[in-house]
Amino acid sequence: MYGTMKRKRLSLALTGCLLLLAFLTGCGSAKDESTGSVGKGTESAPQAAAADLNMVKNQSQNSASSAEKPSSGIGAGAPPQQGSSLAGQTDAAAERKIIYKANVAMEVADYGLAHTEINNLIHLSGGYLLQFSENRTDYEQSGTLVVKVPSNGFSAFLADLEKMKPKTIQRSVQGQDVTEEFVDLEARLKSKQAEEARLLDFMGKATKSEELVAFSSQIGNVQTQIEQIKGRMRYLEQNVSFSTVEIRLYQKVVKANGGQDQQEGGFASKLSGALNGSAGVVLGFFKGLLIVLAAALPVLAVVLVIAVPAYFIYRNRQKRNKKLEERAREIRSLNKASDESSHPQGGN
């Protein structure tokens, strides 16, 4: 019994010695690690700047990939927040960014008066004239106006156009929702601004010229992207704030005494139309004949060159043959007369 107790005490003592030894060993290794970390902390600033440069590249890639994800109040894949309310959803719907555009065609009785009224409406609404063109013919006087009006007065401006009481009016309204694009641009802008701040911080710690040039190039690219994003956001905000209205204003022009001339000259116009048609047919025939003669003129010239001498030769031969026939007829008549005179004498 006593030997057993002695062995237990001995084993406990050995165990305690081993634990003490392990504790001392752990303290020594911790001291070595702290010494190593102090040695690392004394490295040169250029090496630390190079490490910062690599870290910035990785962070910029991560920020670009995160900016491509849709930005909303709830993260992708995260559970919905329990504190959201219907009022918050209504506010979010009211903050949607929509670009409105309308096309209006109006026929009016007095073009000049209507044009003046539209200019007054533009000034009263707080808008401005972006483009204007005018055209006049014998049958119509028209003008096209491209107007920018505040979006909060867009519907009121269209209603004021209808109050002008035109003869006819046609209109169409289109809307383009750019909320998603605008939210994406905001997320990209925040990401790029954070990246610019990190690059400027690391550039301030760099000491080598190569590192300064690398940081400067990256900062220039990031700032260019920031300006492009801001420019697109300003463009969208301006088009959301001011809606576009394209107005075509026209008045039909009727010549004086036009109806009376049509009534009085109904038969005369038909008769003149028939005469003009007949004259046109005759004129067309002569035109065709002249064209045929013009085409046949070279052939006729060659025929005339050959035919005229041949005709004179033929005519001379006919005259000569005629003279010869007349001479032969005279000779025959003389011979006959001589024969008749000789027979009576021989009989006696």
Keywords:
348 residues; alpha+beta; Alpha-Beta Plaits; five-stranded mixed sheet; 9 helices; 5 strands
What does this structure look like?
It holds the Pfam family DUF4349. Residues 1-30 form the signal peptide. This is DUF4349 domain-containing protein. InterPro entries: DUF4349 (IPR025645). A five-stranded mixed beta sheet has the order 2-3-5-1-4. Helices cover 70% and strands 15% of the residues. The chain is α+β, with helices and mostly antiparallel strands and 348 residues long. The protein starts with a helix and ends with a helix. The protein has nine helices and five strands, in the order αααβαββαβααβαα. It has a domain at 95-252: Alpha-Beta Plaits, CATH 3.30.70. It is elongated, with a radius of gyration of 56 Å. Mean pLDDT is 75; it is low at 27-51 and 62-94. It has helices at residues 2-41, 45-67, 86-94, 111-125, 154-162, 179-205, 209-241, 258-264, 266-347; strands spanning 98-107, 128-136, 140-150, 168-177, 242-252.
Lateral arrangement of strands in the main beta sheet: 2-3-5-1-4
Number of strands: 5
Largest sheet: 5 strands, mixed
Kindly report the CATH topology of the domain at 95-252. Answer: Alpha-Beta Plaits
Kindly report the average pLDDT value: 75
The low-pLDDT segments are 27-51, 62-94
Under CATH at level 1, the class of the domain at 95-252 stands as Alpha Beta
Structural class determined from secondary elements: alpha+beta
Order of helices and strands: HHHEHEEHEHHEHH
SS strand fraction: 5-15%
- Report how far apart the termini are: 227 Å
Corresponding CATH architecture of the domain at 95-252:
2-Layer Sandwich
CATH superfamily of the domain at 95-252: ACT domain
In DSSP terms (H or I, runs of 4 or more residues), the helix count works out at 9
The gross shape turns out to be elongated
Helix content: over 70%
Rounded radius of gyration (Å): 56 Å
Domain DUF4349: 96-308
Keywords: Membrane, Signal, Transmembrane, Transmembrane helix
Organism: Paenibacillus hemerocallicola
Region (Disordered): 56-88
